[in-house]
Design goal:
Strand content: under 5%
Distance between the termini: 27 Å
Radius of gyration: 16 Å
Largest sheet: none
Structural class: mainly alpha
Shape: flat
Length: about 80
């Protein structure tokens, strides 16, 4: 599965991150937005910054293992 997230530079103050996250999650919950994404074959998920960090770390580990196991080498 593919996914998208919104990121910013390191050091954004936590209250700013919390406000942005809350507003983005509100948008993701709007019926017209959900409908539009569904028409494109996508499902909005929302979540917390910590959940996105965990997802990124999980994907890095998964794909790093796949690359190691494949024996692929950079040119």
């Amino acid at each position: 599965d593919g996914w998208y997230c919104i990121m910013g530079p390191a050091g954004i103050p936590k209250p700013v991150v919390a406000k942005l996250n809350a507003e983005i999650n509100k948008i993701l919950a709007q019926p017209d937005f959900i409908e539009r994404l569904a028409s494109l074959g996508a499902t909005p998920m929302g979540g917390t910054p910590d959940e996105v960090v965990a997802l990124i770390k999980s994907d890095i580990a998964k794909y790093a293992k796949a690359i190691r196991d494949s024996g692929a080498k950079p040119d």
